[in-house]
Amino acid sequence: MQYRRMESTGDELSVLGFGAMRLPRKSGRIDEERATRQIRDTIDRGLNYIDTAVPYHMGTSESFVGRVLRDGYRDRVKLATKLPPWLTNTREDMDRILGEQLERLRTDHIDYYLLHALNGENWDKLLQLDVLGFLEGAVADGRVVNAGFSFHGSLSDFKAIVDRWDWKFCQIQYNYLDERMQAGTEGLEYAAAKGLGIIAMEGLRGGVLGKEPHPDVKAIWDEAEVKRSPAEWALRWIWNRPEVHVNLSGMNDEAHIDENFRIADEALPNSLTDAELELVRRVAETYRGLMKSDCTGCRYCLPCPAGVDIPGCLGVLNNKHALKDKSANLVYMFFNSGAFGGPPSVASLCTECGTCLPRCPQSVPIPDVLKTVASEFEGPFFPMKRAFFKQMIRFGRWRAKRGQPDG
Ligand code: SF4
Ligand code: SF4
Description:
Elements: E1 3-6, E2 11-14, E3 16-19, E4 25-26, E5 29-30, H1 32-44, E6 49-51, H2 61-68, E7 78-83, H3 91-104, E8 110-118, H4 120-128, H5 131-140, E9 144-151, H6 155-164, E10 169-173, H7 184-193, E11 197-201, H8 215-221, H9 230-239, E12 244-249, H10 254-266, H11 274-290, H12 310-322, H13 328-336, H14 366-377, H15 382-403
Parallel strand pairs: 3-6, 3-12, 6-7, 7-8, 8-9, 9-10, 10-11, 11-12
Antiparallel strand pairs: 1-2, 4-5
Helix pairs in contact: 6-7, 8-11, 9-10, 12-13, 12-14
This protein binds iron/sulfur cluster (SF4) (2 copies).
């Protein structure tokens, strides 16, 4: 594991951080046994930055991380969590929420405390509530060691926030597809020049950049002299930037963890050649032409009052077009139609109420894109297909039961 020193905090941080937002799941909940094993194993292998937040895993991530970090693991990591602006309506809320977080995380201090998912609007709201006074107080009494913010707004708002206070660090969405979105490369360089540490997130853009690529993209990767997986190209591109201290990865699969560790061992700053950077630029351009929405799967738009699984619906659309995922229709039937149990969460349930729109950090025009999803994945025969699948599943379960030996 390589470490980069964040000058603003004096910490030597592992270049790979563990984001506790996409942990392995079992029966709809965190698979605690497997996720505990994974996180502790990464710490044993040298990772020292763990990131969580109130909304991850429907509010259960912080408590889980608190349990994982027992048995001496807490002292071996820098722990990050965040103040959710959407739950913060008074100055008192800030102290109350931080107090609850310390309790859930079983600690007396947060090493890296962030204002979560800032944009121009929620920043103004927090400023009016005296969030800077809150942070100063929390740092002074030791509940918070380093204060920063994560960001999903416009570049101009990003610069204004950077300039407003003596932040130690910021966390930005950074990957080769989004170089010119949100803070982007210009924001990264701006914050770094002001002395802020940089935590990168969404390096694989919700996993999309690590999957089997579209044939047009694969043709470009195949031109590379050194052959690498799509995930390795994406991660090396991030760590190529010397300004990035930690790249957060929402890991949940042992093979991916191993691959991430190998790359984190090898990827040095400024190590990609000009020809390799040009290759990545061409891949980004090709992907941009293929995607139907900018959804990263962050799930901030949920819950939808009509029950639409927004990231699931948008994900199958992007996978179908950008990744040529032949199983996209089947995945939609499996996970969204309700044929396999649970209520339907299909795109056509959208009532266009607009609740999700201000929550989306990528400004995806969600109801419009859902119309495309409905027309591409549902169609007039969808109810019949769903009924057919339901019967198939019943039959399969009946057969499986009959095949079981008695007792
Ligand atoms: S606009 Fe549609 S998807 Fe968004 S919250 Fe309303 S019903 Fe749900
Ligand atoms: S639609 Fe927006 S908020 Fe919802 S998952 Fe996608 S990027 Fe996140």
